[in-house]
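Quick one: UspA domain-containing protein from Rubroshorea leprosula, structure tokens please.
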Amino acid sequence: MATAEKQVMIVAVDESEHSTYALEWTLDHFFVPLGDSCLFKLVIVHAKPSCTSSVGLAGPGAAEILPMVESDLKRIATRVLEKAKELCLSKSVSDVTLEVHEGDARNVLCEAVEKHHASILVVGNHGYGAIKRAVLGSVSDYCAHHAHCTVMIVKRPKTKH
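--- reply ---
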């Protein structure tokens, strides 16, 4: 009897505590308790900003700056994926695919959903207020409206002071 192929769950990660929390929450609720009988194949995706989007229109000195910025962005992407991999391994989740794609996170995540035919996309929530969300744009909001799969937004519980 052939075994059915697992559905794909994509978890978006960046350098924020919010995405780390979302990954940890997802591992604890969907992967660790089920072990090998988990229903999902895990794909972790990091959207690396393009060099020019990070610098903007830098003007005459851009040629010297861009290689340094690109190097920093690559270093950040490597660090983000290493942290995600370590978290997975610490929870005994070893069957994971790690990917970095350059571009705006909103587009990168929706494209990853299409590429992998994902059933679920998991994103963290930065907890921005309405004004910051309007100015910066919310990746989770965009994905909830545009991704062709279920989108789960994992919010960190508020800490009481």
